[in-house]
Amino acid sequence: MELKELIHPLEMLEVIGNTDVEISGIQSDSRKVEEGFLFVAVRGTTVDGHAYIQSAIDKGAAAIVCEEIPAYSDENIQASEGKPVLIRVKDSADALGKLLSAWYENPSDNLILVGVTGTNGKTTIATLLYEMFRKMGHKVGLLSTVCNYIDGEAIPTDHTTPDPVTLHSLMARMVEAGCEYAFMEVSSHSIDQKRISGLSFNGGIFTNLTRDHLDYHKTVENYLKAKKKFFDDLPASAFALTNADDKAGLVMLQNTAAKKLTYSLRTLADFKGKILESHFEGTEMLVNGREVMTRFVGRFNAYNLLAVYGAAVSLGKDPEEVLVVLSDLHSVSGRFQTIQSPSGYTAIVDYAHTPDALTNVLNSIHEVLDGNGRVITVVGCGGNRDKGKRPIMAKEAAKLSDQLILTSDNPRFEEPDEIIKDMVAGLNAADMERTLCITDRTQAIKTATMLAKKGDVILVAGKGHEDYQEVKGVKHHFDDREQLKEIFKS
């Protein structure tokens, strides 16, 4: 594609050189630049792409998009294959998304794209919408924490929202595969870092907002602003669906031009739900006056199902058909995943890794148990993440558990014992009497199964779908579900 055509969507502050040049690819990683590429120098959280402009030139970059024009010496210019075209913009991260969208012929314009944001529930809602629309006969794409899908083709993922180059490439492949819809998790990081720039959304869903990612955002207010920006940027042709029961829910709608819609279990809303009966096999609900039996457990899942229902109806689907399909959907991998033991107790694996998510899961367990059976919780906290939530996680777990086992999660580059110490700081003497600290996660899970009796529930929280433990930069295979199943066999 010619550079002058490619840069048409950008607000350019300065252009040095002739834009009548062919571009053979776009990259923001100088290591991946090839002859004739356009290199976009993006300021990251740890690395500034402007420091690698010369490296990109040396590899044959035909053009550079940046926020600051570099000072070239004659020696540098001669060392390269010729002086590249220089384009200065106000925000190169924003420019990258727009350039990639143009490069791939604006794939999101050819999809009905819905983004899901919030602290908890993103994966469940996006995945269930993907499953629902496939059951309705559509070709659908999914971008999620667990896995990306192009209709039925699974593509492994490392981030909640992929980097812009991967993201736009996946969108283009979805269009090529004939997908009509795409549902994606939109993380606060991706909004703040403008990784979703250049995408055209037809709808946005807000789940809830509780403490998370403060290692990055520093304050809850900054975290909220990142989420809110997603809705502020939605066009008038889109819908904005929010949880009216969350204190941040209506804040998300304050400045959006999109059609404002709400869902709720407690107040008047466009999509109103009520839990009629709950047990470990599922939940019977009233949704906009219609009864539906679902295979999901807990109040937090009732909210997720309302969001799915509301989004599907907002996309023009018949409410009755939506309820029929809703009743046939299954839980998402690692989200309140129930495994029955031969001894008569229940084990639940859940991704809950924030205080609020952990509280929601434990409350859901208590709602079903109704005092008949004990709750044994196995939980840890990830290393090199928000340390402030560690004592809160432990306190919430202790408050709602009969027995608590603190263990290792993904310690990353921290010492697991030090992370557990941070968690213990949130416990009082009475809590400690019901708490064990077992660093080895395998042993922690085994101990929980040894303590469990018929009718009890073991919650193994924090890792959910993950099949690894990250220690000192290395991912070792580890799956909570596999661990439990092996123990049940023995």
From TrEMBL:
Quote the catalytic activity from the record.
Answer: UDP-N-acetyl-alpha-D-muramoyl-L-alanyl-D-glutamate + meso-2,6-diaminopimelate + ATP = UDP-N-acetyl-alpha-D-muramoyl-L-alanyl-gamma-D-glutamyl-meso-2,6-diaminopimelate + ADP + phosphate + H(+)
Q: What class of enzyme is it?
A: ligase
Short sequence motif named Meso-diaminopimelate recognition motif, residue ranges: 409-412
Q: Tell me its EC number(s), please.
A: 6.3.2.13
Pathway in which this enzyme or protein is active: Cell wall biogenesis; peptidoglycan biosynthesis
- Ranges where the Mur ligase central domain occurs: 116-312
Q: Where in the cell is it found?
A: Cytoplasm
Whether Transmembrane counts among this entry's keywords is no
Role of this protein = Catalyzes the addition of meso-diaminopimelic acid to the nucleotide precursor UDP-N-acetylmuramoyl-L-alanyl-D-glutamate (UMAG) in the biosynthesis of bacterial cell-wall peptidoglycan.
The name on file for this protein is UDP-N-acetylmuramoyl-L-alanyl-D-glutamate--2,6-diaminopimelate ligase
- Which species? Parabacteroides hominis
The opening ranks of the lineage are:
Bacteria, Pseudomonadati, Bacteroidota, Bacteroidia, Bacteroidales
Its gene name is: murE
